[in-house]
Amino acid sequence: SIRLDGYVYTRESFQEAFKLVRPGGLMSVSFFSGRHLWLLDRLIAMVRSATGSPPLIFTKPTGQVIILAAKGYSPPVTSEMQSYRRIQKTPRETEEALDDWPYLYLRSRSIPVDYLFTILIRNAAVSNSISFFSARRFSSWRPRASRQYRCSSAPPGSSAW
């Protein structure tokens, strides 16, 4: 489940991006959380951890989220930003996506059952294919008629030849 956003949405990536923000600037993270609160918690925790301060969070009822982190100033607080509504949210305890574990969409550090099932089916199919083609290739194999070679120290044309 490695995707490009698995490397964009990590704590270390946010830290690198925030280093590029000038004093008085703003880092914006836009994401569609799809109403998955644990995913929103993870994003907020990563931005807070990367920037050292609690971010401003704006959401839409559709699940679209904008997380803002200011550098060196407090942005004007507004309750609405176009069709977005500001929320106050303290993230629950959640594991952050890190560069050494960039799986943003996995809720915990485990392999999902559907992935394990898919890997098992794929490995069984590959194993059966190898067995089938190996058996088919070797079942038609027959030893060639052996040629007899003579070795003699007698000169050519003599009775030993």
Can you walk me through this structure?
This protein has about 160 residues and is of the alpha+beta class. Helices cover about 35% and strands about 15% of the residues. The protein contains four helices and five strands; from the N terminus they run ααβαββββα. Strands 1-3-2-5-4 form a five-stranded antiparallel β-sheet, covered by helices on one side. α2 packs across α3. The radius of gyration is 32 Å and the shape is elongated. The model has no long low-confidence stretch (mean pLDDT about 80).
Provide the descriptors you would attach to this structure in a database record.
161 residues, alpha+beta, 15% strand, elongated
Going by helix content, strand content and strand pairing, the class is alpha+beta
Distance between the termini: 72 Å
Summarize the amount of helix as a percent range: 25-40%
Shape: elongated
Oligomer kind: single chain
What number is the mean pLDDT? 79
Strand order of the largest sheet: 1-3-2-5-4
Which spans of ≥5 residues are poorly predicted at pLDDT below 50?
A: none
Strand content: 5-15%
**Could you describe the largest sheet, including whether it forms a barrel?**
5 strands, antiparallel
Rg on CA atoms, Å: 32 Å
Secondary structure: number of strands: 5
Q: N-to-C SSE series? A: HHEHEEEEH
Helical region count?
Answer: 4
List the helices and strands and how they pair.
Elements: H1 5-8, H2 11-19, E1 26-32, H3 37-51, E2 56-59, E3 64-70, E4 80-81, E5 84-87, H4 113-139
Antiparallel strand pairs: 1-3, 2-3, 2-5, 4-5
Helix pairs in contact: 2-3
